[in-house]
Design brief:
alpha+beta; single chain; Split_barrel_FMN-bd; 8 helices; binds fe (ii) ion; Hemerythrin-like; Pnp Oxidase, Chain A; F420H2_quin_Rdtase; Four Helix Bundle (Hemerythrin (Met), subunit A); globular
Length: about 325
């Protein structure tokens, strides 16, 4: 049997019977217990674990998948063994592109970007050369099997030494700024000839990066609103006014983030000049918040350790808590 994503996923269309979920669970446990190695029919195969977040449930969903490396990229195929429908994990990553990858003994966050058009076809041909079974799956379905590029989230952010909570916040801001730069560069490539012909194959790629930025921003602000800001308000009462203004900016940015997603969703028909102006306005507002927060809070955060120190004695002012991580997020738990 070829190494195949569909052989393991829990889409219900697997060739593993009678219980794909329990089979997957066994493979996942073996993978984690043995540094990414599994035995049986998959001995020696290229296998990773992919964790997505359910579109409706909001729950994490892990599947073992075969992978292929081509053109320097890490690829998985949503083959579902050639079934008529896309597997659940693929539907999940279209809604929430920031995913968790376990590969060997390494674990990292990634942005899942399905390839499109000629790029998809070229990558799929490379996949079939490495694992011919995917060609069989493609012949069994009318779906064009999606080829998903798993992009390491830390790839375009310089590593930062984490000596304290301030560095942790800066690391998250570095990542958010990098995503905005990425988004601007991709939209410029989309309007490649200055406003005439577009590059349609970039549509989904831009959308995924935009959603990843929004997902990362939501997780980061949620960590600040629920953890860092309340703790700072207790330990530094003089900052309460500043913290209230920053929390208000979070609410404003939440609306702006939705506007950004809507703007990008319409890129296929947008007038380039208006699109660029609106994107510039939105990114300037987002970047202004990051700069404002750093100006106001970093001095107060200096010296606060991360990970947090052990609980203080009752008479001591509490230290800010770390950011919670409600879902896989590069801003909550970057891995390099
Ligand atoms: Fe913030
Ligand atoms: Fe922040």
């Amino acid at each position: 049997m070829p190494m195949s994503s569909s052989s393991f996923d829990s889409s219900g269309s697997s060739d593993v019977t009678p219980s794909p979920d329990s089979f997957n669970q066994t493979v996942i446990e073996e993978f984690r217990a043995n540094g990414g190695r599994v035995g049986g029919p998959f001995e020696g195969g290229d296998l990773l674990l992919l964790t997505t977040v359910g579109v409706r449930s909001g729950r994490e969903h892990t599947v073992p998948l075969g992978f292929v490396r081509a053109e320097g990229l890490l690829l998985v195929v949503a083959s579902a063994a050639g079934a008529a429908e896309d597997p659940q994990w693929y539907r999940n990553l279209l809604a929430r592109p920031v995913v968790r990858v376990e590969l060997g003994e390494e674990a990292f966050d990634a942005i899942a970007v399905p390839a499109e058009g000629a790029r998809r076809d070229r990558l799929f041909a490379a996949v079939v050369r490495a694992a011919p079974g995917y060609g069989d799956y493609q012949r069994h379905t009318e779906r064009v099997l999606p080829v998903v590029v798993l992009e390491h989230t830390g790839a375009d952010v310089p590593p930062r030494e984490i000596a304290g909570l301030a560095d942790r916040i800066l690391e998250a801001h570095d990542w958010l700024r990098a995503q905005l730069r990425h988004l601007r560069a991709e939209t410029e490539a989309h309007f490649a000839d200055g406003g005439g012909a577009r590059v349609p194959s970039l549509g989904l790629q831009i959308r995924q990066h935009c959603l990843a930025f929004c997902q990362g921003l939501t997780a980061h602000h949620s960590g600040e609103d629920r953890g860092v800001f309340p703790a700072l308000a207790r330990s530094h009462p003089q900052l309460r006014g500043v913290l209230e203004r920053l929390a208000e900016e979070h609410r404003t940015l939440s609306g702006l983030k939705d506007g950004l997603a809507a703007l990008v969703a319409g890129i296929g028909t947008a007038e380039p000049g208006a699109f660029r102006a609106e994107l510039a306005r939105m990114t300037a507002a987002l970047e202004a918040h990051l700069a404002h927060e750093e100006r106001e809070l970093l001095p107060a955060l200096a010296g606060i350790p991360f990970p947090p120190a052990p609980a203080p004695a009752p008479a001591t002012a509490p230290s800010p808590a770390p950011e919670p991580s409600p879902e896989p997020s590069p801003t909550a738990a970057p891995h390099r």
